[in-house]
Amino acid sequence: MTHSRARLPVPRDRFVPSVVWLENPAGDGFTPVSRTDDEAGWRALVEADEPIVTQVDDGRAPPNGVGLRPSSSCSQPSLVAAMLEELDVRAGHRVLEIGTGTGWNAALLTERVGPRGRVVSVEVDSEVADRARIRLLRAGYSPLVVTGDGLAGHPPAAPYDRVVCTASVRRIPRAWIAQTRPGGKIVTPWGTDYGDDALTRWEVHEDGSASGRCGTDLAFMRLRDQRRDFLEPSEDEIEAADSTVTRRGGRELFEMISFAHASFTIGLRVPNCYVTVEDLDADHRNVELHDARSTSWARVELVRGLHPWTVRQLGPRRLWNEVDTAHRWWLSAGKPTPQQYELTVSPDGTHAVRLDTPTGPHRWSVAA
Ligand SMILES: C[S@@+](CC[C@H](N)C(=O)[O-])C[C@H]1O[C@@H](n2cnc3c(N)ncnc32)[C@H](O)[C@@H]1O
């Protein structure tokens, strides 16, 4: 996804740590880049309109110096600008941020709210939070940085005019809604387990509910306890899996994994299913579906020039059949885009969607 380049009033080099992590060209891990050893390389990363990974594997020393999973980052500048615009922060606002990370966005929020406003930022990782506090102070900003689980918000400073989460969530926690004043807004990347997340903006209502709409797609790391998990069955397990074929073609498979097409709808209709795509070479691609909770897994093996494609399925769920059915539903509903859905969270925390189609409205709860 691309966002317009916007000028942000706080330079990010004051917040990016001297050791950052760069993805290996093969996509199999992250290796460190140190400012001390490679000032030009570090600066090129800081000046690019790209996210910078600032911690891997929750800060545990990576084996062989290679990190596997990014766990904290300094977000892409144009995306930060887009989120701030969506949040519509004004002078004097009280703002809660979840995911302090480097502290850069907390500094930008502090600039926006001015001396009459207040910014509270919650970070789950104590080392990340401590470093952010130091950088913020050095740069002349003093938001309150709280070490803790952002799912609980920060009740002592509530109510907030704005809540922004700089990591993706599957559920909008009731605490965030309870701590936002009626008419206030929550902006967060939100999505199901399935595909890309959408930038969503929610308005909080008097009765403790919230309603929202989707914007564009974005790739953000998940809050720690809402991460997605994938399965890696052994060769023997794959060999023993149910094997069928599908006559679905490349166009339909593309639609199933593409946010602008069916992936958002499929995620709303197929709970607890995560899709991954692996390009083995120019002619072979595997689309895999994972439900780590029920240990169900499926793979469609796309081979150029060899159709129909083999489908293998393991575990109690038949994930491919579920995704295939959801894709057919998307076609029958007139190919709705993510932006057509109206999103709601009821006071009891139920997440639901409503879609108006020419044949009438469809409304259903999104599985917890
Ligand atoms: C993309 S980074 C945030 C970027 C940050 N706003 C900045 O300006 O650099 C996401 C952050 O969320 C934090 N995080 C993950 N789960 C969390 C949780 N449950 N509560 C609070 N912070 C969390 C991560 O440790 C990470 O630092």
UniProtKB/TrEMBL annotation:
Key words, A-Z: Cytoplasm, Methyltransferase, S-adenosyl-L-methionine, Transferase
Domain of life (superkingdom): Bacteria
Listed GO CC annotations: cytoplasm
One GO-annotated biological process of the protein: methylation
GO molecular function term, any single one: protein-L-isoaspartate (D-aspartate) O-methyltransferase activity
Compartments it resides in: Cytoplasm
UniProt entry tagged with the keyword Cytoplasm: yes
Entry EC no(s): 2.1.1.77
CDD domains: AdoMet_MTases
InterPro entries: PCMT, SAM-dependent_MTases_sf
Broad EC category: transferase
UniProt xrefs under PANTHER family: PROTEIN-L-ISOASPARTATE O-METHYLTRANSFERASE, PROTEIN-L-ISOASPARTATE(D-ASPARTATE) O-METHYLTRANSFERASE
Annotated family: Belongs to the methyltransferase superfamily. L-isoaspartyl/D-aspartyl protein methyltransferase family.
Protein name: Protein-L-isoaspartate O-methyltransferase
Taxonomic path: Bacteria, Bacillati, Actinomycetota, Actinomycetes, Actinopolysporales
